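Q: I'm writing up a methods section and want to include an example of the input and output format. Could you take the sequence below and give the corresponding predicted structure tokens, formatted cleanly so I can copy it straight into the document?
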Amino acid sequence: MTSLPLRSLGLALLVSPLAMADSAQSKSNGLIEDSTWNLLNRTVYDNREYRNGGSNSGARNAYKPRAERNGYAEEWGYGLMGTLQSGFTQGTVGVGVDAHAYFGAQLDSGGGRAGKARLLGVDNDGYPKDAFSRAGAAVKLRLSSTVLSYGEQRVKTPVFSSSDSRLLPETATGIFINSSEFETLRFVGGHFTESTDRNASSHDQGFVVNYSNAKQGDALDLAGVVFTPGKNLSASVYTSRYEDTWTRHYVGGTFAKPIDDDRSVALNLNLYRTADTGKSLSGDIDNTTWSLMSTYSDGPHSVSLGYQKVDGDTPFDYVTRGAIFITNAVHMSDFNAPNEQSWQARYDLAMADFGLPGLVLSAAYVRGSQIDGSRVDPRGGYAYLGYGDDGKHWERDLEARYVVQGGTAKGTSISLRHNVHRSNGAQAELDADQIRLAVEYPLSGVF
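A: Here is the clean output for your methods example:
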């Protein structure tokens, strides 16, 4: 499957001479001259109370019998993320480098409270580390408007993506090609050999898979095309293969239609088709999962309705913590259980019209039902989840998010969330109440 990114590169090289005169590389000012740096300070506090017999299964609690685990999880950490993106040397082929360094520190937690939120690094005994860090870099080459990167990097595609929803972001190691030779078309391809989890400090743990507990594959390949004919319409098609586990195809698109100066409607569609391949390390997989979200906006008000359906006897699983673009993948649950259908209602209110620019209030409710995991492959990687044949659950998410609009603290964001999840015994996820507070202060500049 390594031919996927090579095919993308071959197509890019074929069309590059046609656009060379007005390409991104022709406008290069130099390796240093086009360099930028970013420094992000982030503090996250995560508190979870498990209800109705649920208990924290993270970190040190996972080493205890279930009867001895507690129902409380709490982590508080500080993260510092530095990134450097160089420009490209001038000439036909430009050369550059992207580098990053991440540092995390424990502000408060303990062996019985850590692990579930995955904010902090933990040692081999399940205790949270006082501090943890990692760094990496990728060399990049640019021909015309096609960039090839090799090394450790962050990736964003519907079939393989680097999550940044905790204290530190994930990264992936491999080759990634991004070609923008045509104004409305973008071609991508990649071959990756590992992913690094958000709270990890090492780079040799293979791939992180969100649900399967089976042996993992050693490589992931992807290729895709993104079509953007205008600012209100975008469509994409991707194909991928996770070695000896599954093949996955994706079709998605977004459409926005202004009604007048204040009102608009938008649609967001995502469809995944997944089947086991090779050694079928996670067992038999035959899964089609899709979602559709519609949004109506009127001034500061936005109302959204979404529907999501899983057609298959396994959950919709994904490599890394963030490669999931379906609508009802919310804060505490992905609503991706076998054969599950789910609905979402959401309301967002931008407070600028009420004299509070930068403040947005959000409320969402998701309900899932018809879960039936009774036919999951008993030899596969999902049997341990213990799905029943009449699973149902719901989640309620409330959030207030404020971004400072000016002054020395401009760009600082503060987010406060309260999430509640409840389920019956046939659904694999636990009942819990969550409070999360996150504060980010960014710094950036050029050389």
